[in-house]
Amino acid sequence: MTQSVLPESSLEPLSRREQKRVDTHEALINAAMSLLSTRGFDATTVDDIAAAAGISRRTLFRYFPTKADIVTAWTGQMTAVLTRTVENCPPECPPQTLLAQALEAVIPHIAPTEHEAFAFVFLIERTPALLSVSLRKYAQWEDSLATALARRLPNSRDRHLAARVTARSGIAAFRTALDEWIRLNGTRPVLPILRQVLTLQAEQFSAPETAGGKRETRHASPDAPPAGSRHRSCRPATTSDRARSRKSPPGAGDTA
């Protein structure tokens, strides 16, 4: 079963009819992703999904015209996670750290278990019929991240371009991490792989060139947090954090 990602801004309770539509929508996504990742895309029929969700074939088509549309809806939930993570980080969070935390936030929302998450990722990334879904997903993630990042960058002529460069490099790192996870057949957890890829990416961009034109790089530890977030946490400040900040005298904690 996938984890529900509902908008936090929806404060008014849903009517019984609206709640039923939401429940049916989620039941269809959960049933479809479970069957598709277990049996395969081509071997799973619309009737199979409808039966697993406890609805009729006709009702299913009122929600999703095709099986691929169900997968698209599932990937859309991950877009909401990315955007919300960026928007909830404090203003002082550096762009690269913010990006790393947003990408890491997606991982636990893929599925409740690592085994299910690997099956979902393998389904989407390695099913030819879902190639267009996968490409649209990454394009949507990139646009959402770039828009959210642009709101936080200093106001300059190149702000939107810088946001898109940062977002695109982050999505490239995420895709590389998933490819490596699939290459390893899920034998390693995906989060350390993602952190390793992000660290390698940051080191490649920042490493100085030697006399021969080569860049000096260090081997990234698989379990280390990504460069840029290693020494700084960009979680939202809590009430106790702000209270401690007010109590601390100027210069407290400074060392000579």
Automatic annotation (TrEMBL):
Question: Does Transcription appear among the keywords?
Answer: yes
Return one GO MF term. Answer: DNA-binding transcription factor activity
Question: Region (Disordered): which ranges?
Answer: 207-256
Q: Where is the composition biased (Basic and acidic residues)?
A: 212-221
Alphabetized UniProt keyword annotations: DNA-binding, Transcription, Transcription regulation
Establish whether keyword Transcription regulation is in the entry: yes
Please give the Gene3D superfamilies that the UniProt record associates with this protein: Homeodomain-like (1.10.10.60), Tetracycline Repressor, domain 2 (1.10.357.10)
Show the Pfam families listed in the entry.
Answer: TetR_C_14, TetR_N
Q: Which residues form the HTH tetR-type domain?
A: 22-82
Ranges of the DNA-binding region feature: 45-64
Which PANTHER family has this protein been placed in?
Answer: HTH-TYPE TRANSCRIPTIONAL REGULATOR RUTR, MYCOFACTOCIN BIOSYNTHESIS TRANSCRIPTIONAL REGULATOR MFTR-RELATED
Kindly provide the name given to this protein in its UniProt entry.
TetR family transcriptional regulator
Q: Which organism is it from?
A: Ameyamaea chiangmaiensis
